Amino acid sequence: MSRFDWIDGTELGAEGFLALAERALALRAGSGPRRFPGKRIVAVFLNSSLRTRVSLEAAANDLGVHVVTLNPGADAWKLEWRAGARMDGEYAEHFADAIPALGEYADLLALRAFAGLKDPAEDRADPVLSAFRHWSPRPVLNLESALWHPLQALADAATWRHHLGPDLRGRKVALTWAPHPRALPAAVPNQIVLSAGLAGLDLTVAHPPGFDLDPEITARAAGLAAAAGGSLRFTDDPDQAMDGAEVVHAKSWSGFSGYGRREEEAAVRATLGHWTLDQTRFSRARPTAGFMHCLPVRRNVVVTDAVIDSARSWTTETAGNRRWTAMALLEEMFSRMS
Ligand code: CP
After folding, report:
1. What total number of domains does the chain contain?
2. Distance from Cα 23 to the centre of ligand 1, integer Å
3. Where would you tag: which of 175, 200, 318, 326 has the fewest CB atoms within 10 A of its CB?
4. Is the dihedral angle over the CA atoms 143, 149, 155, 158 positive or is it negative?
5. The whole model's pTM is what?
6. What tens digit of pLDDT does each residue of 145-167 get?
7. Ligand 1, atom 3: nearest CA belongs to which residue?
8. Are 115 and 159 members of one domain?
9. Does ligand 1 come within 6 angstroms of the Cβ of 76?
């Protein structure tokens, strides 16, 4: 059997993706998890985390799996990933040596490595995750890379499924760009458009001019959506995006066409405070619509307290679903190894 890596959430197709979300909801409702005693994961975090790290450790614990978490540069050697690098600088060890060694201790290796946001061609290749996969002798779990956040995808899908029912096709979801003091990678919005495509949602993405997503990714997502009975459309009007929405995601990201113009982009971003999701805008969505954000979130910049603290905020529920969806995915990955 070929190695099963979880990289962008499409590995099992639309049916398999939604089945994992369904399994997560069953686990949340009390279904007993499968056990894999003696199995081990090494999770390497090149960037900070709260939910991904703790939900992975909690989920693995419930399956009898032990997780060793490493933060290179803080509690482990700082790792170089570039092939052929002359290592006379800050990096003490190369992926070529470290990752095969970690494979000697674990059955599954996991990595978080965000986008560099300097070179679009480099980020498009998801270079750190690609190097990690190259050197890993074990299946690889993506804990958020330059392009994707496939564990967040499963938690989002479980939340959509819980509130909207089993058939997500044609359900109306909005994703609105939001202000932020820093340029952020697009892994989360990339993942939302891809997952929405898998689920067949009617997704409207609102963003200001210049804050576009990678056209290769949106074309792929539109193809998935069309195949599943959904659709993907874009607008630069955040109010219009709310109309009829049953779910509203807010997220900040930097524009794909803004690579190389980050200072200019920062100046533009500073003028876009009116994109904060507030009660007035959110009230244009359906009265039952829920608010979603992957967290962490900048309160009163991305979204106002009134929205995120309201009964219609599904952020804590979705963060909770990170545990159950991680469990469902680990069951799938370890089942394939036994
Ligand atoms: N949503 C999410 O991935 O949270 P962390 O960055 O805290 O892991």
Report:
1. 2
2. 21
3. 200
4. negative
5. 0.98
6. 999 999 999 999 999 999 999 99
7. 52
8. no
9. no
